[in-house]
Amino acid sequence: MTFCEDDDIVDKLHKVCSDIEKLGEIRLYDPANSNNDLTELHNDYEIKMIKYHLTRVLEALKTDNSKALSDLINTQMQLDTEKYYYDYAVQKSQIFKNIIERPTEYSDIRIKARKFSKNYKTYVDYSDIEVIEKDTKLEFKVSFPGYIEVKKIEWLIVNTGYEARKSNQLRGNLFESSEVEDEIPINLRKRKTEHTSYSGVHYVISKVTDKSNHQYYSTPFKVRVS
Hints:
The protein is an alpha+beta fold. The chain is built from seven helices and twelve strands.
């Protein structure tokens, strides 16, 4: 593990925590003093305790929400990291914030999802309570009542957390089109395909605009990535 010149203290701490299971086996440098090899400085018991505490620190760091790390330090309690990811999404995406603050706008717009199973070589149903791995292909499909005369279907994808920010992939600042589906009119293109790339809890919202330009929103669909 090496630090880069432009790494700040959060970057360094994230690198150390990400490799913490290797402590005792590899050179792992102190993020506050890169001359100190943590493996050489600590005995087996101390290494075990460091692994325990820094694993928890990593979960807080992944949220990229400074309050998560502050609460962990101050309370020493088990963190509900999902809350910090949610707050992060609200802070980073004004569109997401506006939608969730207008609950009366929710309607019978529903999102269902499937993930591509590498084992079965086909899509299988995916629930938003499931934690999935990176590099998983997801397909989202929106459904809506028959009384809505659809003009357009769009999607809001909101990524959260440290990894998405470092990759400049937070998104959430604009609505995106559905997938192009051959021989299907544009107003009935209901699908959106994504690939998981970043740890965190990410959000998908579908917006359906009818022919009178009234907009309907789905409730946020959560994508939990380990």
